[in-house]
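> call design_seq(struct)
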């Protein structure tokens, strides 16, 4: 059996003009994850990641912390959906970035609603693929891991949407349950699959073993 580790990127810049940029804390989360793996002697046979800046920066942090030297394979199908486009598809008048707790709550309520409609095929957010095409991008990465790296340890660095979609696919969950998972995935968290020639199986979901010390209590984030 092989093992696949799916890591969500470190904390990005939620509420800023450019979300696709790790915060200082997000960079620290990634480096700490690399250190954690290095301390335990964990090495990977292959690395895949999306093409977004926050994916690249997270991998660079992990590589720095662990002193890894392999080059990752970029896989556009592991890129996140466009949350802003999803929200605007159901509420075109939204202009301001969420800056308050009330604003955050309203944003994620609209995002959940928009994701449900996108998955159901009732809206087509601008610049985004259909939901079946998004799922295909994620499952093609899983198929690549299974067929090209049998029995190996593989790392994927991606985002909450693709990771929850991968889990939903493996567990045959409904779109609504997949959204629930998506909203709970924490920054730099690890989701682990075992895989054989025919399928993947979920082992752990959304864990933060590298931050499981009192000194890192303030490093646990979700945005």
């Amino acid at each position: 059996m092989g093992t696949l580790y799916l890591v969500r990127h470190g904390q990005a810049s939620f509420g800023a003009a450019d979300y696709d940029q790790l915060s200082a804390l997000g960079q620290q989360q990634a480096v700490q994850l690399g250190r954690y793996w290095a301390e335990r002697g964990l090495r990977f046979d292959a690395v895949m990641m999306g093409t977004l800046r926050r994916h690249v920066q997270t991998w660079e942090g992990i590589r720095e912390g662990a002193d890894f030297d392999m080059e990752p394979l970029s896989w556009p199908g592991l890129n996140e959906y466009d949350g802003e486009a999803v929200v605007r598809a159901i509420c075109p008048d939204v202009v301001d970035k969420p800056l308050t707790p009330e604003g955050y709550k309203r944003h994620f309520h609209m995002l959940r609603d928009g994701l449900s409609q996108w998955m159901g095929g009732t809206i087509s957010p601008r610049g985004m693929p259909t939901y079946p095409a998004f799922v295909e991008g994620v499952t093609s990465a899983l198929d690549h891991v299974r067929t090209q790296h049998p029995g190996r340890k593989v790392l994927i660095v991606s985002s909450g949407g693709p990771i929850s979609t991968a889990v939903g696919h493996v567990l045959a969950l409904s779109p609504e349950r997949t959204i629930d998972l998506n909203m709970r995935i924490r920054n730099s968290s690890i989701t682990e699959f075992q895989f054989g020639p025919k399928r993947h199986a979920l082992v752990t979901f959304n864990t933060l073993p590298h931050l499981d010390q009192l000194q890192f209590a303030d490093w646990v984030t979700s945005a």
